[in-house]
Amino acid sequence: MPKVTILPHPEPAPTGAEVNIRAGTSICDALLVNKIDVEHACGKVGACTTCHVIVRSGFSFPTPSTRKARKSNTPAACR
């Protein structure tokens, strides 16, 4: 099961966190289950940009993503 390290952030994770994500689970869902309140204004359908996360390393895009997200390593967490 992949492990995601959440760096400290004043609002959703002040002390940071480590989250295990089961295959097929979105990053957004995994964060929410672990009580890390990531914004998701569109209801997790990929229609807004509020759940974008910054990926520092170790991530590959398993499904087609926007060119901008692939280039900047900021995928929508709901996808």
TrEMBL record:
InterPro entries cross-referenced by the UniProt entry: 2Fe-2S_ferredoxin-like_sf (IPR036010), 2Fe-2S_ferredoxin-type (IPR001041), Beta-grasp_dom_sf (IPR012675)
Domain 2Fe-2S ferredoxin-type: 2-79
Entry-linked Gene3D superfamilies: 3.10.20.30
A molecular function GO annotation: iron-sulfur cluster binding
Superkingdom of this protein's organism: Bacteria
Protein name as annotated: 2Fe-2S iron-sulfur cluster binding domain-containing protein
Source organism of the structure: Massilia polaris
